[in-house]
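Bench notes, afternoon.
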Amino acid sequence: MVVRPLTLNLWFTLLVAALLFSGCKGELGEKNNPLRIFVVPSQGADRSEAAAKKLAAHLEAATDLKFTVSVPQNYIDLVVAVGNEEADLLFMNDMSYLLANDKYGASAAFAVERADGDDSYRGMIFTRTDSGINSLEDLEGKTIGIVDVYSASGYILPAMLLREKGVSPGKLERAGEHDLVVKEVYSKGVDAGFSYTHDDDTMGQDDARARMKDVMPDVFEVTKVLAVTTAVPSEPVVFGAHVPSAVREKVSEALADYASSEEGRTVLMELNEITGLHPVTDRDYDPVRKALLGLGEEIDTKVEGGGLLELRQKVRAAPIPPLGD
């Protein structure tokens, strides 16, 4: 008769121990609690994920910390992940960073550099040369391809420009990637598209179309740029507020060293056409924060269903003001 209570006690003890052990994740960067790198693909998910894994492998070797990689399809996913402390090191765009900083205290450590050391970029509005569209006013009632509603160059900046001109497109089509916007314009799937450029006029070719030249050799002849926007700082590399300062410093040092190496430059180019990194603070993003403040308030209040928190499960939400209804 003594066996039964002893058995129950033993099972209870084992259950409590298992629950306690399962809740013990260890320090951030240990094997059972790795640092999580998040990257939104701009050159195709497979290529970005492969490059991110190379970056993670190098950081593991350089820091003795463990890393994993996630490649979500939407910028809002990064904001949600860092808010839930499910992401630690993130390659964000300006708009998602401003939201993550405002809502969850995420902080920028680096800004990316592009070809020729560019540390800023612009939005552009482009169309086919045979579209009959020759001015922004001609876009009234037309179908526009956008990257994502939280993409600065692929939606926010061009949308602000059209709003300033009083132009209202008829329909907005979300493509998800810059490459796909170019493809949609080229193939006449949309009348015009929003994407990025590093040029300060409409005659340059240092823009999203260049990435598609291998598969569309005549892309620069078939398409033309209608307008470019004002410049904003390049996208930041961001740490979640929950990442300990010692871990942040160790990872930042390793990342900076890697970015200055030949191998690192190759991997970062594959990741997102990054040619270098330079240190920044949150204050470096004050100009874009000021420019987008009003629009940011619209995003947080006018999306169908409520504000940012309600948008968590609506990552494919319809386009929003200034061009949404």
